[in-house]
TrEMBL record:
Organism per entry: Flavivirga algicola
InterPro entries linked: HTH_HxlR (IPR002577), WH-like_DNA-bd_sf (IPR036388), WH_DNA-bd_sf (IPR036390)
Stretches assigned to the HTH hxlR-type domain: 10-109
PANTHER family per the UniProt record, alphabetical: HTH-TYPE TRANSCRIPTIONAL REGULATOR YODB, TRANSCRIPTIONAL REGULATOR, MARR FAMILY
Listed name of the protein: Helix-turn-helix transcriptional regulator
One family name in Pfam for this protein: HxlR
Keywords (A to Z) from UniProt: DNA-binding, Transcription, Transcription regulation
Keyword Transcription: yes
């Protein structure tokens, strides 16, 4: 597993120690907004993440208390992943990144209804996504 070294006591630096690579943030995106729960779903998300990187990031996120895994009830050899309250607390930041990316690069793909809802009703959308995740209702929001 990737060793996380504390570079300083700065809160931004500490956040980057955990989320400072694209793969970790993409896993968080997939858990938060795409409803992904299984290893193969993350692997097939389209960005070409290597299996060893995915495994490493999932272990690190679980070790840090950001995600949790459990045996899948329908197939005990399979793990099912979800966000903890700490992981869910990242949702507003991820949504801001989504909108920033859509505004910065108009070639990105965002579901127009989701994007407009965020622009027009940000607070309620953030709350809806967070409550859905807290209830374990994994949905594809974008």
């Amino acid at each position: 597993m990737r060793k996380i070294e504390k570079r300083s006591d700065c809160p931004i630096s500490r956040t980057l120690d955990i989320f400072g690579d694209k793969w970790t943030l993409l896993i968080m995106r997939d858990l938060s907004f795409k409803g992904y729960q299984f290893y193969n779903e993350f692997l097939d998300s389209g960005e070409g993440m290597a299996t060893n990187v995915l495994s490493d990031r999932l272990k690190m996120l679980e070790e840090k208390g950001i995600i949790i895994s459990k045996k899948y009830e329908k197939l005990k050899t399979r793990k099912q992943y979800g966000l903890t309250k700490t992981g869910i607390s990242l949702v507003p930041i991820l949504l801001e990144m989504l909108v920033w990316g859509a505004n910065f690069d108009d070639s990105t793909v965002v579901i127009p209804e989701f994007y407009q809802r965020f622009l027009n009703d940000r607070t309620n959308l953030v709350n809806e996504v967070m409550i859905s995740l807290e209830k374990g209702m994994n949905q594809n929001f974008c």
